[in-house]
């Protein structure tokens, strides 16, 4: 039998790799599943070629529609296999059609729905596949699919509202940068010769002299500065690929003025929503914490969540390590603590996420409303300084005539 190299994740989310002997790639996946490993990549050593699981990508919105449609068909009494084939035939997206075709083939071969979905992590999140697995084992697959669809739609809606709110400030920043570049590199240098004589006489105002110096410096050193900026971006990008770099960046994000607290609230809301949704679908709490830790999207919060997972494994509470981290709001921790005592953690976590997202959305709108006039004021101030610096010597020359 040929040897296959594999990369997989264990139940803690850690990547593992190794070599297995099997007749087919499918047999390797079965062996890995029996060891509680989730395959990411399987490659046949003898052929020197392999396949990357989940090469096709579909949008989150398309995934949400798929979950909702599959739930509707199953709820109507259509068998799972027939439902998958109907959705495959109706799919207008080529990538989604190919993914569904692969899922149908694997389910026909005896794989469960969640096992087939795990082959396409770019289309189906780990949270979704775990909820589907819990739903299938618990006999409430259609309900699980509905919750996944709603969760995905809510997250896309929040992402869309956040991007829309930030679009105009970003536009102002880009336009302002181009305007400033035009003034310094094209407009101001045209006055250099005119004001040169005033500089020689010592009659050039300090603000004009500084503006001409700054414009000349940008023009002469613009290319080295640009190269330095590109090198800095490249260095930051390399650092962000390391855990230390990502941790530093996550810390910087939540400490930024104005936006830091908003980003932290959004990360806490994501954690609460994913954890609550998975618990509601019957996924074990340790596994739910592992997945929600990654869903939070912040390594600073991830450390507190890891501590919480260890606490629960030792029979202790979830709230204590979250409170000790200092990053979870006090009211959130108190609600989690009460929910643990009343055995309503899943429901309360979703309610916490709803409340955080609503409050954060309002704060984001307010911040953007404040940011827009501030940026306009800064741009107007820059233009005003340039105009004053250019007009002041002209007024002096005209008054001396």
Automatic annotation (TrEMBL):
**Residues that span the membrane, as ranges:** 165-188, 221-238, 374-395
**Localization annotation:** Cell inner membrane
Q: Which UniProt keywords apply?
A: Cell inner membrane, Cell membrane, Membrane, Transmembrane, Transmembrane helix
GO CC aspect terms? plasma membrane
The protein's predominant localisation is membrane
Pfam families for the chain = T2SSF
Q: Where is the Type II secretion system protein GspF domain?
A: 68-189, 271-393
Task: Tell me what topology the record assigns in the membrane.
Answer: Multi-pass membrane protein
Can you tell which superkingdom this protein's organism belongs to? Bacteria
Q: Check the record and name the InterPro entries matching this protein.
A: GspF/PilC (IPR003004), T2SS_GspF_dom (IPR018076), T2SS_GspF_sf (IPR042094)
* Protein family per UniProt: Belongs to the GSP F family.
Q: What is this protein called?
A: Type 4 fimbrial assembly protein pilC
- State the organism named in the record: Blastopirellula marina DSM 3645
């Amino acid at each position: 039998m040929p040897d296959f190299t594999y990369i997989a994740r264990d139940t803690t989310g850690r990547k593992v790799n190794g070599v297995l002997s099997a007749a087919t790639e499918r047999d390797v996946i079965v062996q890995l599943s029996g060891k509680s490993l989730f395959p990411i990549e399987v490659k046949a050593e003898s052929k020197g070629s392999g396949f990357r699981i989940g090469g096709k990508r579909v949008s989150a919105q398309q995934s949400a529609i798929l979950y909702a449609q599959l739930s509707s068909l199953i709820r109507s009494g259509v068998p799972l296999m027939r439902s998958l084939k109907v959705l495959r035939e109706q799919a207008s997206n080529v990538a989604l059609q190919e993914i569904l075709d692969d899922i149908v083939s694997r389910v026909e071969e005896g794989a469960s729905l969640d096992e087939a979905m795990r082959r396409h992590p770019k289309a189906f999140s780990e949270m979704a596949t775990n909820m589907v697995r819990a739903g299938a084992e618990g006999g409430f697959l259609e309900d699980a699919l509905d919750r996944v669809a709603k969760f995905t739609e809510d997250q896309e809606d929040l992402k869309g509202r956040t991007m829309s709110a930030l679009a105009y400030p970003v536009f102002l920043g880009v336009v302002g940068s181009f305007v400033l570049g035009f003034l310094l590199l094209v407009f101001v240098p045209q006055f250099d010769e005119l004001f040169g004589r005033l500089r020689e006489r010592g009659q050039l105002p300090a603000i004009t002299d500084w503006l001409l110096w700054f414009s000349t410096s940008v023009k002469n050193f613009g290319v080295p500065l640009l190269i330095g900026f590109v090198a800095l971006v490249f260095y930051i990008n390399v650092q962000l690929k390391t855990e230390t770099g990502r941790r530093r960046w996550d810390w910087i994000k939540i400490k930024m003025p104005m936006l830091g607290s908003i980003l932290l609230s959004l990360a806490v809301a994501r954690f609460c929503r994913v954890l609550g949704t998975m618990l509601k679908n019957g996924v074990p709490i340790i596994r739910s914490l592992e997945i929600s830790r990654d869903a939070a999207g912040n390594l600073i919060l991830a450390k507190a969540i890891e501590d919480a997972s260890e606490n629960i494994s030792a029979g202790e509470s979830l709230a204590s390590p979250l409170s000790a981290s200092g990053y979870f709001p006090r009211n959130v921790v108190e609600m989690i603590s009460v929910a643990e005592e009343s055995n309503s953690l899943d429901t309360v976590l979703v309610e916490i996420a709803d409340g955080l997202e609503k409050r954060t959305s309002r704060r984001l709108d307010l911040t953007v409303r404040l940011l827009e006039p501030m940026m306009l004021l800064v741009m107007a101030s820059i233009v005003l300084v340039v105009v004053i610096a250019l007009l002041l010597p002209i007024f002096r020359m005209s008054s001396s005539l």
